[in-house]
Write a structure and sequence with these properties.
three-stranded mixed sheet; 3 strands; about 5% strand
Length: about 500
Amino acid sequence: MSLPEVLAADQIGFPVLSVLVFLPALAAATLIFIRDERVVRGVVLATALVELLLSVLVVALFVPGVPDVQFAERMNWIETLGAGYHLGVDGISVLFLPLTAFATLAAVLISQKSVRFMYKSYFVMLLLLEGMTMGVFASLDLILFFAFWELMLVPAYFLIRAWGPGPNRQHAALKYVMYMLLGSAPLAVGIVLLGLNYRAVTGESTYSFDLLSLLAVPVPPEIQTLIFFLVAFAFAVKAPLVPFHTWMPTVLAEGPIGLGLFLGGIKMGVYGFLRFAVPLMPGAAIEWSWLMTALGAIAIVYAGLIALAQPNLRRLLAFASIAHVGLAILGVFALNTQGIQGAVLLTFQLGIVATTLLFLAGALSARTGSSELSSFGGLAGRVPVLAAFFFLVGLAGIGVPGTSGFIGEFLVLMGAFRVHWSLATAGVLGVILSAAFFFLYYERAFLGPVRRGGATLHDLRPREAVIAITAVVMIFWIGLMPARFLHITSGSVDALVERVTQARVADLAATR
């Protein structure tokens, strides 16, 4: 089953996805020749704003409710390898473009005050990371996707190693890269096997790694499970999913907050399952859904319990992110409309929530010089605006009705309950644990007695307030009027569920 395409030239008139992917790299190259720090700031901020406006424009012009790939761009790239330059978005991927741009803008604003050396180099790395992340979400050729997936390691490594505030930042950088490379090796093998299978099934003389072409070619059951586990391992490491999660708390605690907004807020591993693992290997996804949902349930409970005991705000948010990844995986491998649509919306809204909470955590660290609970206390009286926004955004993180978190979590729990009541129970327990660790930490850090002499702290500055206000508007817009966002995802989710249903029917027919 192949999906129809709408070309960018017909839909918007110019290759908007290529602009989103390569504009940050062009801006990064321009920075090399600029010496004035104020001009550097202006170029970086302007680039982040243009990226955000363009990505919002893509969503505004996106035709909802259909499974079509939209804003598509195609060019020959490496013909002998069968790799092409193929970009496009559908209901599963389109919302991640403005999420990436929002995370970048937040990272730029929080970093303009916190980065005090090699200023220009830092923003070069940050812009490169944005462009490669856009490439991951826009790529429809698996070789191109893999190239962006791997290239992200370079700026991420240098951001952690050179600008991480923690004393163990070099260890954290190496740990992150080793984990990602450990996942990338089997991903590469899985992609190669998919290309070989395409050639074997079609009888063509060339390979193809184009997603739409691969969707039209069945993967035999004897190799489908192998390929599924190869790519699922890579996405589980990236997500991260327990037990492959240990890099996340280390990197968020030791690395710069600007990078943390990307790694903690943008769940590329969950996207990988939705984009490639499930649609390309639906039979294996059905067969091993019990294992994936079990891993999701374990992540929900384990990370929630660990978060309860965390005195460090960044590490607490890292474990909260891991617990939410588990909940999203629960929705993905419910393999029904409610579960998958809930997972897409949950992943998007949690990106907004996690990015904003990490942004506010970075603001607190800059003011107090620490992310430890021992440095906080009575913050609601000292930085009331920051405390109010932290509370409002945190409500979405625990899924309070009326916020964006409620819709996604409710759909995931509905989808999980349709599979087995025990999965829904694990999800509900995760919601309870999320509320427990959030309210417990908030009470200790923002309420109660003032610690360390109660030094005067600056409240949110105007630029910081812009990020917080934008996040709160989105949180209540999605929470109170979710129909638009659900309609955007519905066509692609329905197509994915139909593909899974067809695999179920074929499996039943083969067993009779």
